[in-house]
Amino acid sequence: MKVNLHIGLERSATTVVQRQLAHNRARLSDSGILYPESPGALNHIRLFMAVSDPDAVCNLRANRGFASPARQRQLREALQDKLAQELSSTKPDVLLLSALQLGTCLHRESELVRLKDLLSPFASGFKIIAHVSDPAHMLRNHYAEQVLEGRAASLARDLDLVGEKDWRAACLATWHQMTPALGQYSEVQGAPFWLDFSALAAQWQSVFGQDAVEFHRGLGARTLNAEVRQNLCRPLISNLDLIDTDPALPDLPSAAWLSRARQINTQLLQITAQRKEAFPRKDWRALLSKVSVAGDAMDMHGLTVISKAFHSANLAFAQAHKTLPVETFDYTESPRPWQEADPTQGFRPTPYVMAFLDGISPPKSLKQIEISEQARVLMSPLAQKNHAHLQGTPLKPHNKLGTVDETKAAPQYTVMPTRKLPSEQSGRVIVGCMKNEAPYILEWIAHHRSIGVDNFLIYTNDCTDGTDQLLDQLQHLGIVQHRRNDNWKGNSPQQYALNQSLKEPLIKNAEWIIHIDVDEFINVRCGNGTLDDFFDQTPDATHVAMTWRLFGHNNVKSLNNEFVTQQFDHCAPKFCPKPHTVWGFKTMTKNIGAYEKISCHRPNKLIEEKRNQIKWVNGSGRDMTREVINKGWRNSRKSIGYDLLQLNHYALRSAESFLIKRQRGRALHVDRSIGLNYWIRMDWNDHQDITIQRNQARLAAEFGALIADPTVQDLHQAGCQWHAKKAAELQNTPEFSELYKQIQKIKLTSLERASYALALDMES
């Protein structure tokens, strides 16, 4: 009896073949062809599970109870018996077997030998049949299937392997890093080794014979119709006509859904590793279904790099396999690199993961950190649940990141001479927006001048504290350029100002453009603490993600005239991926014309022709281009780094200053209020960081030079007096007086604060 063994490889073609064969099972039997049911009604998955190596535990064996060698042996013996019974009762001339996983999962010679040994008692000869198509199509469809089974790695990982000398070996290296006991399965997480068709054919030929292996054209980009379905089945059944079932193939999941699912998979696998317990697959799949979203399937942009890499080899392969037409490997090259799709609608995986964990008990081995009584009164039930769950996840905040000792006093930086700029160049330019910030302007300008910023373009709107007059005088002295923005239009005064700034010669002629606010201080933590020192470490950078370090009010209640950078030296932990605001960043942009627009956190509207000239780096100087070149304003666990530079963000300053900020409102999100929740999100005081204080001597010198102008001094003092008076006035207002009392009572740990803020994200 001849055995025709269909091993995949293309999923869509395999699905068509299996449905056609199952639908025509009786018709085939009448013609002496058996498509058995004992290995599986449709896909002969039991055959695959029976022959994989005992230690190669896949998700199918694990979820169906055949993970142990003993249970697998029982499966193999039972399959042999039942298959023998089917053969005995039908006495066919041809045995048809089809399982996608035979080609896409079996990669060891021992597994192919075991497969041959299982079938040899029934076989007079073997024909191995595989359907293939353009590698880009196969990769896309396989990746989609993997993600919905739990894959965490981005498709970028697989595309990066294209340059490897041995594709098969490079892919299989990703298979050997998995831990099945923790829900990490090689065939789900690993790269598709089988796209090297020549290597795959050689291995199967070494076991089943040189002439036993045939490759045929799969579906690829062709339209599925009755003729195509018949042709896909023809290699298995010769000239027998089948009754067409017209089975509709399932639609590919949307690209946005895949992005969402992959982000969730990443978090769940990390949590699993920390818990040392796997989650039930049924619940995992239900969670992925919950985040599904309609939309277009992943397009082919950027994927054809793999078609191009294999094209010459595949044409030669088609010449060697006469059953495979060369047009199988036709493709249209895409000029754009692959980018993961936008998950849409501001999707963040953490709220879904936390809700998922809510139904699962924490590991018994995890010692719980109790919530303080004061925090328990403040935290909602959801926040308290978050507190329990965060402890067992990689999202738990801590300060063990990087190489900088932030609490150790160090010598003051030395004063650097003012840079001499070529004519018609404005150098490094900060563009900022202000409203009622008079007491803080001089320190902010002095600090940034001392580290190597050359010019300032400041927009103001609706100021009543003397900010406008102070900036006008600084413009008169040649320190800044000041623009009134009182008649702003659109959604926010800030974005309107940034749009207008692009028309300014100061911005057009800038070397670097930096958009930060007056409560944000660039803290260079390498060399002599200047931008030159940072650029020496990152000579190829075109964009720098300056990640926030959120500094709390440090128990400072009242306004005073000390420097902000001196008063407030306690901040958020370095590792704090949640809530999402903690790892926000602002961007220092080299003026190479790569983007059309400046926005609050980053430039936007990438000019495609400039893509290959762009290099984004993080605060440790590491390349993070792939992650943020198109979008995004927050660091991830992969891209976080503070070693060379961070952006100290003093969003609150003192308690009295916060009252004035609340009364003033926001520059960007003008429709969002500033209140107790904002305070809790921003008041991080757990860890000391005094690294910026190495700049105090230079700051004092620059500040002294600015305030030496009598008019500047008078306007600065008037601004301080205005704020002191405003703070006293607000404290006599019931609403603000109550808020002032509330914020003074709040004492939360980093874990409690993260849990509270995360609950706000989940409820919004």
TrEMBL record:
The keyword Phosphoprotein does not apply. Transmembrane segments: none annotated. Its main location: membrane. It is a single-pass membrane protein. Signal peptide: none annotated. Keywords: Membrane, Transferase, Transmembrane, Transmembrane helix. The lineage of its organism: Bacteria, Pseudomonadati, Pseudomonadota, Alphaproteobacteria, Rhodobacterales. It comes from the Bacteria. This is Glycosyl transferase family 2. The keyword Mitochondrion does not apply. One of its GO terms (molecular function) is glycosyltransferase activity. It is found in: Membrane. One of its GO terms (cellular component) is cytoplasm. It holds the Pfam family Glyco_tranf_2_4. Coiled coil: none annotated. It comes from Epibacterium ulvae.
